[in-house]
Amino acid sequence: MAVPHVTLYVADGCHLCEAALEVVEAVRRDTPFALTVVDIGGDDQLERAYRVDLPVLEIDGERAFRYVVTAGGLRERLTSRA
Length: 82
Hints:
Strands 2-1-3-4 form a 4-stranded mixed beta sheet, covered by helices on one side. It starts with a strand and ends with a helix. 38% of the residues lie in helices and 26% in strands. The model has no long low-confidence stretch (mean pLDDT 95). It is built from 3 helices and 4 strands; from the N terminus they run βαβαββα.
């Protein structure tokens, strides 16, 4: 069984992004998944797609969270994919 792939879109100076990354890293300690963190800064296409919703977390390419990522919610979504 493949582990889920989580992508977290962030930007410098985004306090919600920092909090989301802390949650994601904490969950990752006990729930396996691949993680890619994407800084949207300087990429016009990513800025247009994600800036107003930051942070944005996708699981296997599907948007799962925006603004706030909760540990319980992330664990639930990851385990429901198994």
